[in-house]
Amino acid sequence: MTGVALTQHAREARGTDVSGRSPEELRDLVSTWGAELELAPAETIIEWAAATFGDRFCVTSSMADAVLSHLASRVVPGIDVVFLDTGYHFVETIGTRDAVAATLDVNLITITPTQTVAQQDATEGKDLFRTDPDRCCALRKVAPLVDALAGYDAWATGLRRAETQNRVIAPVIGWDAKKAKVKVSPLARWSDEQVEQYVAEHGVLVNPLVHDGYPSIGCAPCTRRVAPGDDPRSGRWAGTTKTECGIHQ
């Protein structure tokens, strides 16, 4: 099912509860559709996910830009967009989130860790991001997202293979065994140039930090500016061997 028919079906699926699929059934969907959609346009991939999972499909966004949220809102107005507020974000990132909520036809959902930064400092020691960044990410990113996705069978990420060598094999439709959910990456095959073109054509919101030397944006204490020509993600956890927060591992 493609084109107008799929778009209409995707929109009708919003508000539809299609829960009850077992992990085996979800894995079968990945096996059946993964190769079929590998070369499909991003819009078609989102349409398929919305039509397949209904209200049990959402988009996640780090608010480096609003490309995926914008695209998803055009395909499925009112779609859930989940934003994880770690308590350590740049003010520009929070501002981008607020602008997305105000200007796009999405249902913006902000989730937070179980502990505030102050509470974590009291229980884990001050500045855990410095002493044990893996545990900090586990507490403030990985665990909250797992909890937030409990009501969904599938979610869309903005992962792109061009971002880092570690993401070269990121499938368009994949299976996350740890979360037992379908992981959809509509932009996986997009180049940096394609992203820039989409932003320009549609006037998409971009985090101001992107134009201030931060091509990859995470928590403020763990993100540094990147010199022109360097790996875009080299500013993340700079000075350590850490390259991922754990959400996509």
UniProtKB/TrEMBL annotation:
Main localization, broad class: cytoplasm
Broad class of enzyme this protein falls into = oxidoreductase
Which SUPFAM superfamilies does the entry mention?
Answer: Adenine nucleotide alpha hydrolases-like
UniProt keyword list: Cytoplasm, Iron, Iron-sulfur, Metal-binding, Oxidoreductase
List the NCBIfam families hit by this protein, alphabetically: cysH (TIGR00434), PRK02090.1 (NF002537)
What does the similarity note say?
Belongs to the PAPS reductase family. CysH subfamily.
- Name the record gives this protein: Adenosine 5'-phosphosulfate reductase
The root-end lineage is: Bacteria, Bacillati, Actinomycetota, Actinomycetes, Propionibacteriales
Q: Which gene encodes it?
A: cysH
